[in-house]
Amino acid sequence: MLQRPRRNRKSAAIRGLAEEIHLTPQHLVQPLFLVDGMKKKNAIKSLPNIFQLSIDQSLKEIEACLKVGVASFILFPAVEEKLKNKTATYSYSSKNFYLKAIKTFKKEFPEICLISDVAMDPYSSDGHDGYVENGKIMNDKTLPILAKMSLAQAEAGIDILGPSDMMDGRVGYIRQALDEAGFTETSIVSYTAKYASAFYGPFRDALDSAPKSGDKKTYQMNPANKREALLEADLDFAEGADFMMVKPASVYLDIIHVLKQQFPIPIAAYHVSGEYAMLQAAAKNGWLDYQQCLDETLLSIYRAGADVIISYGAKDFADNKKRKA
Ligand code: PBG
């Protein structure tokens, strides 16, 4: 045998020399679920170790993440039912605690990167990402609402807007609204290939944001489709997206790979709530090692081509890496 691949695996030092990729915390984003009020740290049943946090508690969490090298955060609001309505007006109200949170975080920690969520569902009495009329999600009537939400977040100082709604044309619509208002430096990470996935279950528990009727299949993508992701990506690229996202991540590695090869902007991947909850549940039963399986999952997402990985395990990954170093 002239080729014996095992020779390059015979010691930790040689394995180190031959190691092809190295995932570091600078590529990771920690999601934060925000609630109004003070001193709140509410557990989320289906997301172990993840909490709904009030602004004061979030500041502590941000500090803990910064200590281990995670400097980017994606923010989601848990909104009281009584503040929700058909047109999601609370999303751009000056009273919205989410906008206050953005301002406070950037003031306390100017070095961090904040990513928002642009979609109606946390604020919508229908629990859909778009405006609902006679049971239908109305694409073009949703766009102005998304633009108002985006401008309010830009005004509050967000670094990157994250439209997660999957309405057609929203990236271009938001980009134009931003530029007209002078927010030329506000970036957009488009949820380009967001699939209609059952892995979002725990997230909807966290925000109490599940659709009140129907499902999201008329706007989120069919899990069977790969070429359609290229169409979405062409549109988002042409409309001015700065980053493109694939979501979920570990069960859509082929989509991450193809977008990375075909588009010259950074690719983000969202390791979603259900993907994280599975690891936690198996670990709780003693069936899997949480830390090792998390590390392997995030490494796989990175190897497939993701430049940015959003994961509920971001801090755990970074913390473990620091302890091992
Ligand atoms: C909704 C939104 C969802 C997630 C992020 N933004 C859920 C959905 O589309 O129903 C899911 C994230 C996760 O599961 O961790 N705009």
Could you characterize what this model shows?
By secondary structure, this protein is an alpha/beta fold. It has one domain: Alpha-Beta Barrel (TIM Barrel). Helices cover 39% and strands 16% of the residues. The protein has 11 helices and 12 strands. The strands form 2 sheets. Strands 1, 2, 3, 4, 5, 8, 9, 10, 11 and 12 form a 10-stranded mixed β-sheet that branches. Strands 6-7 form a two-stranded antiparallel ribbon. β8, α5 and β9 form a beta-alpha-beta unit. The longest helix is centred in the middle third of the chain and has 18 residues. The protein is globular and about 70 Å long. The protein starts with 11 loop residues before the first helix and ends with a helix. The relative contact order is 0.14. It binds ligand PBG. Ligand PBG binds next to α6.
Terminal-residue CA separation: 37 Å
Q: List the secondary-structure elements in sequence, H or E.
A: HEEEHEHEEEHEHEHHEHEHHEH
Beta-strand proportion: 15-25%
What ranges have pLDDT less than 50 throughout 5 or more consecutive residues?
Answer: none
Helicity range of the residues?
25-40%
Number of alpha- plus pi-helical segments = 11
Radius of gyration, in Å, reads 20 Å
Instruction: Find the CATH superfamily.
Output: Aldolase class I
CATH topology, what is it called? TIM Barrel
Give the second-level CATH assignment, the architecture. Answer: Alpha-Beta Barrel
**Biggest beta sheet summary:** 10 strands, mixed
CATH C-level label? Alpha Beta
- Ligand types: ligand PBG
The outline comes out as globular
Mean pLDDT: 97
| Structural class by helix and strand composition | alpha/beta
Instruction: Work out the count of structural domains.
Output: 1
